[in-house]
Amino acid sequence: MHSYIAAYLPSTSEADRRKPDISPFYANLRELKCPPAIFTCGTLDPLLDDSVLMATKWTMSGADAVLKLYPGMLETSLKDFTLNSIN
């Protein structure tokens, strides 16, 4: 993951990467009054834990969130889904 971080956020420190402007995981979502959200993730995706944690944090902020996991998939793409397939 270090190479991805370096490519996406070159010349940033660990502290910089924890700023809410860079990562919404560190934002106070309750203050943002988030809209409803859909989180999709494959069970083999390296970012599975991040998706589960963000969906949980979203819900804890008082916003509606749906977490949809796809067994055996590495990643998911919204272009593959319609709203009816997620419900």
Counting structural domains, the number is 1
Count all strands and give the number.
2
Residues in β-strands, percent:
5-15%
> Average pLDDT value?
86
Categorize the overall geometry. flat
Strand arrangement, major sheet: 1-2
Helix residue percentage: 25-40%
Low-pLDDT runs of 5+ residues are none
Output the number of helix runs: 5
Give the terminus-to-terminus CA distance: 31 Å
Backbone CA Rg: 14 Å
H/E element string?
Answer: HHHEHEH
Q: What is the SS-derived class? A: alpha+beta
For the largest beta-sheet, the strand count, sense and barrel status come to: 2 strands, parallel
Structural descriptors:
single chain, about 90 residues, two-stranded parallel sheet
Model description:
- The chain is α+β, with helices and mostly antiparallel strands and 87 residues long.
- The protein has one domain.
- 37% of the residues lie in helices and 14% in strands.
- A two-stranded parallel ribbon has the order 1-2.
- The longest helix has 13 residues.
- It is flat and about 35 Å long.
